[in-house]
UniProtKB/TrEMBL annotation:
<dbReference type="GO" id="GO:0080147">
    <property type="term" value="P:root hair cell development"/>
</dbReference>
<feature type="domain" description="Nucleotide-diphospho-sugar transferase">
    <location>
        <begin position="180"/>
        <end position="398"/>
    </location>
</feature>
<feature type="coiled-coil region">
    <location>
        <begin position="65"/>
        <end position="106"/>
    </location>
</feature>
<comment type="similarity">
    <text>Belongs to the glycosyltransferase 77 family.</text>
</comment>
<feature type="transmembrane region" description="Helical">
    <location>
        <begin position="14"/>
        <end position="35"/>
    </location>
</feature>
<keyword id="KW-0808">Transferase</keyword>
<dbReference type="GO" id="GO:0071555">
    <property type="term" value="P:cell wall organization"/>
</dbReference>
<keyword id="KW-0175">Coiled coil</keyword>
<dbReference type="InterPro" id="IPR044290">
    <property type="entry name" value="RRA1/2/3"/>
</dbReference>
<dbReference type="InterPro" id="IPR029044">
    <property type="entry name" value="Nucleotide-diphossugar_trans"/>
</dbReference>
<dbReference type="GO" id="GO:0000139">
    <property type="term" value="C:Golgi membrane"/>
</dbReference>
<keyword id="KW-0812">Transmembrane</keyword>
<protein>
    <recommendedName>
        <fullName>Glycosyltransferase</fullName>
        <ecNumber>2.4.2.-</ecNumber>
    </recommendedName>
</protein>
<keyword id="KW-1133">Transmembrane helix</keyword>
<keyword id="KW-0961">Cell wall biogenesis/degradation</keyword>
<dbReference type="GO" id="GO:0016757">
    <property type="term" value="F:glycosyltransferase activity"/>
</dbReference>
<keyword id="KW-0333">Golgi apparatus</keyword>
Amino acid sequence: MAGRREKYGQSIRGYRIAGAIAIGVLLGCVFAFLYPSGFFSPQTRPLSKSNLQVDSSNCESTEKVNMMKSENRRLSEKNAELQKQVRELNQKLQVAEQGNGRAQEQQLVVSSQPQKAGPFGTVKSLRTNPPVLPDESVNPRLAKLLSEIAVNKEVIVALANSNVKSMLEVWFNSIKKVGIPNYLVVALDDTIVDFCKENDVPVYKRDPDENVDFIGKSGGNHAVSGLKFRILREFLQLGYGVLLSDVDIVYLQNPFDHLYRDSDVESMSDGHNNMTAYGYNDVFDEPSMGWARYAHTMRIWVYNSGFFYIRPTIPSIELLDRVADRLTKQPNSWDQAVFNEELAFPSHPGYIGLYASRRTMDIYQFMNSKVLFKTVRKDANLKKLKPVIVHVNYHPDKFPRMKAVVEYYVNGKQDALDAFPDGSV
């Protein structure tokens, strides 16, 4: 009996489990039919008005920012133009003030700083003018370039166009041979820019200027030479001492090791001996004057405007301005003649002279080609000297003579200079 009851109870429990499973499956099918996406599916909400306003606000903000940036650029350009005009007006004002009553200004300086004179033979006047305060706003691009290549705020500068390309190559190769790092070519056309870059030569091309560019690209030696007085002004305003160099020059030593730097202008001479280079008393004879027939004059051969060191001082800048102004007003003038006249002529009625100090370079260190070919190559002792530079300024066959100078002084070819005449053929 007991066995039959246990078997009966187990069968009832099995039916109950099977029924529960069947009911669960049935309910699952019903819910799956009624809620195909499930009880907790996310519901998509429509965009609210606030969202649309945010997107619209973002678009408007972007447009305003762009407009503000554009306006800022326009104002910056306008400000730069106004600053340039202010600088130009200030420069004109300074020139006007310096030219108006210069003698009175000099007297004021002297009288405002009275000094007692020392014992006999000990009194020395001021020889070296103070440098200008550098103004990088004049030309930020040039200022950056000079800061990278100049040594002790000094640099060799040469102007060049395509007409002097062959001489320019001899020029910068001689500089590289000596190991001079601080030099710069001011290119007057794009051909020279590319040529310098190909040869790893520091080069600078000015911003476009119709008057300068026309002469720079097509002008001959004298026309291009006259441009330097206008171009050098920015170098001095930036506070740099400049050794201005023509390209018909061969460098054999570093010229910066042989400068005195005690004058506004330190220039090589066209003189060919001590008298002509450094000055002499030239007596003019006029027999008709009888007892007063002899008139004494002081003479000195001109400075060469193709090689001079100029310090960044007010008198130096005034010199550049004077020469550039005269060359503009007198287009047939020779820049070297004007350069020397402005340095030499004293003040007199109707004219205020330039108060600039000057020094003549040693003619055997800074040698012109007349000294070399007429004197040095024929003198056994002078031939032993090694000049700092040789400037082929006296001869039109510049390129072959430059190469001969390199052969003689650099490569040691003793007869390299012999084939050339003293003068030009």
